[in-house]
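Researcher: Re-running this chain for the archive, since the previous output was lost when a drive failed. Same request as before.
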Amino acid sequence: MQFAFYFDQTRCTGCHTCAVACTDWHDLPAGSVNWRRVITYEEGRFPDVSVSHISFSCNHCQHPPCIESCPENAIHKRPDDGVVLIDEKKCIGCHACEDACPYAAIQFRPGNDSKAEKCTFCNDRLAGKEPPICVAACPMRALDFGPFDELSKRPGIAGRVVHLPDCSWAKPALIVKTK
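Model: Regenerated structure tokens:
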């Protein structure tokens, strides 16, 4: 089974609650790294304008390029749920995984001894049968998670999300219902 995030762009108001909840839950220093981000896009010309938001994190790809790029085998994909995790003890901070990730999901805190870090799919919450904190916190219920095969059957799913890189070769575990 492969877990995936589901994002309903028609419901997102760009409030950033998902990103703030993630930062708070994981006790991340404000402004140094953002495991979940919300990007706002304004398009068109008056009077035909539109605004859309995209909430994303590590997409726990089915074929993650970060794993292949790591010279220390510090990144692994759990076979039972497809969650991609980094072993901080093995990471040497070389940034190869950061360069390989098309979504800029892997980040390093400022400083010379920083280790790679990213969304963990809230594996601590999953172990307790709870949803990832970003999903639980979203007031508009724009975020969801579950098995990739089930989520991909929902109506209105986009084959290609305009503002995200086309990484069909990595098979990201992110399903988007576009606006």
